[in-house]
Structure of Glycosyl transferase:
Amino acid sequence: MAHQHFDRIFPYETLKSLPVQFLKPQSKSIGQKLSQTQKVNLLNIEIDNVFKTEVLENLQSGIVFTPNVDHLMKLQGDREFLQAYKMADYKLCDSQILMYASRFLGQPIKEKISGSDFFPAFYNFHKKNENIKVFLLGAAKGVAIKAQEKINAKVQRDIIVGSYSPPFGFETNEAECQKIIEMINRSDATVLAVGLGAPKQEKWIYQYREQLPNIRIFLAIGATLDFEAGNLQRAPKYISDLGLEWLYRMVSEPKRLWKRYLIEGLPFFWLILQQKLNIYKMTNHEVQSYE
């Protein structure tokens, strides 16, 4: 199991000896005292500085993205991804590393709200709300339907009204995309949860949202469908709280994730230092997108 493999490499006794006061999450009261702003700017992305409960209580409609280090690095060079991000109504911090960065910049984010935490909180919050009907889109063949069955069993009603795991590369096939749109519209869903990975899921929502008139809430949830189906195991909470969930996932899926975390993500720390020193500059595509 991934958990046992991780523990052999990074023993719990060693991890828990790290500086606790710096690593532990902000309590709600501390977060309220330290940050009065509702937005925190990280590399030109305005992240909502909110608690999960606030979002659950106030989310009636809109698009929800969950930025992490990988997202912020991809946004540096992908104009279409940035345009998708600009139209999102909620951008929730999905990274303990981003929380550390926000503290370093003097604007601490109140709470880490990963897609894999927010989505189960969302369907449990609305388990008796018959107006919330969810369609699941994403993951490998058979995963979405498995997640649908498990979630409906948990909440004891058919809150998930449809699901589909599209073939690889479907986003370049307009006929396939139109078939998916028809499936979603026929399902009577009011919420679309898309688990395709970034930036594919955000771009797909951006491109097709206007063809889905019944969908009031769009959620980009990454690997959450695999977690809900039981195909992947979440990192233990203490690992996540230490900001090491990325390392846990890399140990679990080294071939797929080593490059993302060990190469593509490293410049993030230099860019945050530039922002701290007020020398961070937008890339050309960012300047054009904000004009």
